[in-house]
Structure formats: structure tokens, C-alpha cells
Amino acid sequence: YKPLVAVVGRPNVGKSTLFNAVVKKRISIVEDIPGVTRDRIYFDAEWLGQEFTMIDTGGIEFVDQDNHFFTSMRYQAELAIREADVIIYVVDGKTGIQPQDEEIAHILRSCGKPVILAVNKIDSVEQEINIYEFYNLGLGDPIGISAVNLMNLGDLLDEVLKYI
Ligand code: GDP
Ligand code: MG
């Protein structure tokens, strides 16, 4: 049994980019157009000798009765809450808080699982000021990261290890 770490968040915040950065293999396709890709969603990763399985919930799709694929952030979040040992909730430091972020935060606040709030796209020290508004989501201290520049990913994973 390896602990399951779920990456949750609305489209385009950088979940796949973060996932790829952590697993150190470019196995998912990063796309600007949400819903276009068929991402690889599970991968085994390791940090400081601790192994865990990471899941990119943004890649989870559902099939309706007409065989159409669709994604649902609510289902993705609920799946993560049910299955995961730790949830990394990714938000976008460039766009700030969006209504969908509030919806997911509302679900996660009462979920009973550890939630780590990662503010992505903090690509430079000057942008760190953008993390503070995310205190309003009521999920504790936000951690600023840049999945593209690989900034603060160690701090994020250190936080994950506290719970697994
Ligand atoms: P997802 O829909 O949450 O999986 O988001 P993606 O990982 O596909 O990324 C969406 C877009 O955000 C892509 O154009 C990425 O290059 C961009 N992106 C992801 N991480 C960062 C980051 O740390 N900084 C910046 N500036 N852009 C990022
Ligand atoms: Mg993605």
C-alpha cells in the first residue's frame, strides 16, 4: 500500500504541469484547451525516500449514456476525498480566486482529509504577494509554487510528507 496523493483544482491552474514536475516524466500532455487531452492520471512518485501514488483528478473522465466523455470537478473532488490520504488543492496565482475555486474550497473545507493549498504560477519572488488572497478560501496557509519553474516544489512535498 502506497499513500495516495490527489491533485485537485479547476481546469488550467497547472495540475498536469505539477504532476509532470513531481513524477519527473513527461507522461501527461499539457494542453491549453481543457478537456482535449487524455492524460495519464496515476503515477508512483517518491520524495525523500517516501513513496506515494499521485493522481491528477483533472484527467478523470466520466462517460454518459451516449458514450460522451465529460469531466466534473465536483465528482473529481469527491473521488479525491473518498480515496486520497492527502489532497493538494491547486489554484492559480495569476488569475486570483475564481467562483469555481470557491465551490471546490467549500467541498474541501468539510472533507475531513488533509488539504494542502498550492498557489501555482508564482514564477518569481515578486509574485509571492499574490498568494495572500487565498487565505480567504479558509484552507489554511497557502504555499506559493511554480510548476513551470520548479519553484517551492520541495516545500510542497515536505508538507505532503507530514500527512503520510
Ligand atoms: P490543468 O488543466 O490544471 O492540468 O493545467 P495545465 O497543467 O494543463 O496547465 C495549463 C496552462 O498553465 C499551461 O499553458 C501551462 O503551461 C500553464 N502553467 C502551468 N504551471 C504554470 C506555472 O507554474 N507558471 C506559469 N506561468 N504557467 C503555468
Ligand atoms: Mg490537466
Automatic annotation (TrEMBL):
Binding-site list for GTP 1: 9-16, 56-60, 120-123
Domain EngA-type G per the UniProt entry, residue ranges: 3-164
Subunit structure: Associates with the 50S ribosomal subunit.
Described function: GTPase that plays an essential role in the late steps of ribosome biogenesis.
Family label: Belongs to the TRAFAC class TrmE-Era-EngA-EngB-Septin-like GTPase superfamily. EngA (Der) GTPase family.
Protein name: GTPase Der
Organism: Megasphaera hexanoica
Gene that this polypeptide is encoded by: der
